[in-house]
Amino acid sequence: MTDLAIILLALFGVWTGWRVFRVDSMVRASFALMLSFIATAGIGLLLSAPYIGVATVFMMAVEMLVMAIFMVMFMMNPAGLNPMSMVHQHRLSIGAGVVAFAGLGAAVLLSDLPDSPVAPGTDVVAQLGFELLGPSMLIFETAGVTLLATMLGAVILSSRQGRFGMADHGSRPPGLEPGGAPAGRRPEKGGGHGHGHGGHGGHGDGGHGRASDDHGGEHRGHMSDGDHEGHAGYSPDGAMGAPGPEHGATHRTPAKSEHGGEHRTAHGPGHAPQDQKAADAPQEDAAPNADPHAHHRKGTGHDGDDT
Amino acid sequence: MTLIIVLLAASALFGIGLYGALSQQSFVMLMMGLELMLNGALLAIIGFWSRGLGGMPEGQLLAIIVMAVMAIEMAIGFALVVALYRKRQADVTEAIGTLKR
Amino acid sequence: MSVLLAAGVLVALALGIWLGAWFDRLAPALEGGRAAGPMAPLRDWAALLIRDQAETEAPDRMNRLLAPAWYLALAAIGLSVVPVAEGLALWHSPVGIVVWGSCEALIVITVFLHGWSPNAPFPLIGAYRYAAIGLPVMLPSMFVLIAAALPAESLSLIAIVDSQRDSWNLVRQPLGLPLFLVVGLTLTLRGPLDFAGGVDIAGGTSAEESGAGLFLWQVARLATLVAFSALAAAVFLGGPLGPLLPGPVWLALKTALVMALTVLAGRLIARTTPSRMLHVLWVWLLPLSFAHLAVSGMVAL
């Protein structure tokens, strides 16, 4: 009876594990992985490991939730409405997988397996507790310290601010083919460029702020055109001050469609060095009279909050 | 008998996970392959502990360690993906081919 | 015997669902609104049941159908580890609070799937919002439950109830119940922590639901309220312990009390934006629950 349940759970776990790489959506894939883990947990429960089994469910549920949140950020096809197959070295991988399974399976079938089951009525949870805080305390503590190091490492690795400037400074997307031109967002307008971008906005303000409303409007449009990340709310009105709302509303859309491309070619490269300067030297420009740079600093601070 | 079933399932999970880790281009999917391999390892440990160790608590301890490894893999993996995305705006392995040179 | 017990727990769950629905309809009286009678929930449900289900474009049918069922099942599993009388629970799990913790985590995932599967914008926004909020709520929940397990020296709920013979955990660990109420509000999608639904996104994960699907979802929410309240009553209020009356009656009374508290809290505490709530959860609630665990540990020593 137990064996039958274990066979069914094992089949379910292997099948859901296989589905992970066969479904068209990352959400389905990660929850298929979760089901595979739940099958493992069920087998653990049946094999008299209540704590390990239930803790696996808990851990994997939370972990797959984290996965789901990350998928929002990194996946082009989270809903699975289109087929999704992104593989390389496919045959080699299939071969490696089959060889691994065959090798391990042969080892399982050919070797003489031990047979000494857990005695019924053993309080395995209490045993585990005494083991964790008794003879194996050093191992347990090592795991704890490693997890602490992991937390620090994860925060440091994923932090945008760094000792040598922003982590995404000068970041360029990869080419579509090896050695090709950068794909995706343009580096001087990219969303990962909030920093340089804020500098650009500041520059536009300083250089053209006194010019006609129309021109300012264009610049505003230009800024919001490149705004892919959170600072859209800040830049149009915050950088320009008073004439903000209606101009932001009226000019942003036209600028996007009509002047956006023009600006990219006309102003993009020409402004680049100044952007660089504004971006690289925030300290010197901290004085309140340096209006554009003050805005620029505000802009970066805001970016930091958002990311 | 029970142990053989469990271990066969564990090796199947490990094989599928290896296939996924080698074949997937997307970092997130690749990490799912790694998780699946760890799932196989966890299943094998539970099986061995329950049917071969006579309930020695060290077996459970090993399972706990595997869970900690999973958490570490997940946290550092996603941190690396975020760092890489910041630097290269990349979410597939092909985008970091320059690491070869 | 265990069949009888299971039937009893199910009947109690059904009664609790009805009671929770009635509490929800009584609560407007606090703000000068009109309170409805005890039959109002049944009428509303009957009206829901005869309505058609709305269809969306390219939904994930399986998950859409299964999400309310999962939610209900998880509530039932969570309830099954709660001791109904001294030393008697439907599922004598030696790791009762870990089982409940797993149910919590899976409930968050179920709500996410419920919002994800209709393939429509508002439910999806609700799902992602809720996932971001639900994640940090899991941590205080675990700390609070571990703190409650410390005096009992066991993860089993039966032992935790048994450890409260002299004084309830509510007295020994006064912060526990308020912190756990936050968890309850999240799990039952209520008030300040109902980021899955809410009028600001047109009903959120349930925006596309109607008819039997919506009915089942509402029932599952209430079932989770019952399970959460029963667990909170067992962990903090001594569960079935009490003089004169038999244990199950005490448990039912205490459960009803926690249910009323949760409905009240959900009604009276204002909602805020998800980003501000995230700040509150990570920066204030997490350290607070950690301090609670440390203090409880010292008291238990």
TrEMBL record, chain B:
This protein's GO cellular component annotations are: NADH dehydrogenase complex; plasma membrane
| Entry EC number(s) | 7.1.1.-
Q: Where are the transmembrane segments?
A: 30-49, 61-85
In Gene Ontology terms, what is a biological process of this protein? ATP synthesis coupled electron transport
- Report any Pfam family annotated for this entry: Oxidored_q2
From which residue to which does any coiled coil extend?
none
- Bilayer topology annotation: Multi-pass membrane protein
What catalytic activity is recorded? a quinone + NADH + 5 H(+)(in) = a quinol + NAD(+) + 4 H(+)(out)
Q: Quick check: keyword 4Fe-4S in the entry?
A: no
Q: Where in the cell is it found?
A: Cell membrane; Membrane
- Keywords on this record? Cell membrane, Membrane, NAD, Quinone, Translocase, Transmembrane, Transmembrane helix, Transport, Ubiquinone
Q: What is its main location?
A: membrane
Q: What is the uppermost EC class here? A: translocase
The record's section on InterPro entries has:
NADH_UbQ_OxRdtase_chain4L/K, NUOK/Mnh_C1-like
Q: So which domain of life are we looking at?
A: Bacteria
Q: Does the keyword Transmembrane helix apply?
A: yes
Q: Which one of the record's GO molecular function terms can you name?
A: NADH dehydrogenase (quinone) (non-electrogenic) activity
Q: Per its UniProt record, what HAMAP family does this chain match?
A: NDH1_NuoK
Protein's job? NDH-1 shuttles electrons from NADH, via FMN and iron-sulfur (Fe-S) centers, to quinones in the respiratory chain. The immediate electron acceptor for the enzyme in this species is believed to be ubiquinone. Couples the redox reaction to proton translocation (for every two electrons transferred, four hydrogen ions are translocated across the cytoplasmic membrane), and thus conserves the redox energy in a proton gradient.
Its family remark reads:
Belongs to the complex I subunit 4L family.
Quaternary assembly: NDH-1 is composed of 14 different subunits. Subunits NuoA, H, J, K, L, M, N constitute the membrane sector of the complex.
**How is this protein named in the record?**
NADH-quinone oxidoreductase subunit K
TrEMBL record, chain C:
Per the record, its GO cellular-component terms are: plasma membrane
Q: Which InterPro entries match?
A: NADH_UbQ_OxRdtase_su1/FPO
Give the domain of life: Bacteria
Its predominant location is membrane
Topology in membrane:
Multi-pass membrane protein
Q: Where in the cell is it found?
A: Cell membrane; Membrane
Name one molecular function that GO assigns to this entry: NADH dehydrogenase activity
Q: Sorted alphabetically, which keywords does the UniProt record give? A: Membrane, NAD, Transmembrane, Transmembrane helix
Any one Gene Ontology biological process term? aerobic respiration
Q: Does the keyword Ribosomal protein apply?
A: no
Annotated family: Belongs to the complex I subunit 1 family.
Query: What is the official name of this protein in its record?
Result: NADH:ubiquinone oxidoreductase subunit 1 (Chain H)
Q: What is the species listed in this Swiss-Prot or TrEMBL entry?
A: Brevirhabdus pacifica
The root-end lineage is: Bacteria, Pseudomonadati, Pseudomonadota, Alphaproteobacteria, Rhodobacterales
